[in-house]
Specification:
2% helix; mainly beta; 293 residues; four-stranded antiparallel beta sheet
């Protein structure tokens, strides 16, 4: 594993080759915005989710008619070493190519390029998925960046809010005991409001999964100050908001192209909500941006 640093006048972002993951986001004053992975709460920081989001029923599904894919939560990319294809002071491109190990779990000749580029006080994160195979390839992709909450010493978790781009009425489906999404069991999280006050009890039953948002921006910020981060996710239909159930001092803002298997879905990978497909030799890029406020 190696690390690389991108920097400009406003922001410094540190990346690691294992999982092609962000491990630090600092402003010009040295303030750290990204969760630093304290294992007492959650050892992750900003894993890349591919080729699934969340879980499959019993960890497996049928794909391409007669093949089987099987994964732990969030797929395979986050545990794999990526190659660094290119880098400058403000941009880095990582690549993960399918190998014999990945093909046992996900039987496709894929390439996932993770492209990080600084833009002003933010970083644009692009997931470029390439199908090098001779068959149609289904997949999901997404991000899982977690941010310090509170950001500054002397503040509390409850002084922060998640603020959406527009007022939202959101009924979030809950997860069952197998971590599958039960769309028949929803809880009202927002009623014509753009502001979700943060409290630990919101996350005692796992993530809040927003699947009907008008907004394509969500900020984690102090309720009385314009201090925090804004995630802009035009290419993603779903957003997860999560913290650990043991009162972790962080909040993850997670743009997703799909979700865990739903209880009303079968076990055919291509039938999952949000699944995307690539024709042979085709590619597709989905991006989101993290900006320091």
């Amino acid at each position: 594993m190696s690390t690389i640093q991108l920097t400009n006048q406003s922001i410094t972002v540190t990346l690691k080759s294992l999982g092609a993951e962000i491990i630090s986001i600092k402003d010009s004053a040295g303030t750290e915005y990204l969760w630093q992975g304290n294992p007492d709460y959650w050892s992750g920081q900003a894993p890349v989710l591919f080729p699934i989001i969340g879980c499959l029923r019993n960890g497996k599904a049928t794909v391409s008619g007669d093949k089987t894919c099987f994964f732990g939560r969030h797929g395979i990319a986050r545990k794999k070493e990526f190659a660094l294809l290119s880098s400058t002071d403000t941009k880095a491109v990582f690549s993960l190519r399918a190998d014999e190990e990945t093909k046992e779990q996900y039987p496709f000749d894929f390439e996932l390029q993770m492209i990080y580029e600084l833009e002003g006080s933010g970083v644009k994160i692009t997931h470029k998925v390439i199908n090098h195979d001779s068959v149609v390839m289904p997949y999901c992709v997404g991000g899982h960046p977690a941010f310090n909450c509170p950001i500054s010493e002397g503040e509390s978790f409850e002084e922060y809010v998640v603020e959406f781009e527009y007022p939202e009425t959101a009924h979030c489906a809950k997860l069952n005991e197998d971590a599958l999404i039960d769309n028949g069991n929803r809880v009202t999280v927002l009623e014509d409001s753009a502001v979700l006050p943060v409290k630990h009890s919101l996350f005692y039953d796992d993530a809040l999964i927003f699947d009907q948002l008008k907004s394509r921006k969500a900020s984690l910020k102090h309720k009385d100050q314009n201090k925090g981060i804004c995630v802009t996710f035009p290419d993603f239909d779903y957003l997860g908001v999560w913290s650990s159930a043991n009162d972790g001092p962080f909040v993850a803002i997670e743009p997703w192209s799909g979700t865990s298997t739903c209880t009303d879905e079968d076990d055919i990978f291509e039938h999952k909500r949000g699944i995307r497909t690539l024709e042979p030799e085709a590619d597709e890029a989905l991006s989101f941006t993290i900006d320091i406020l």
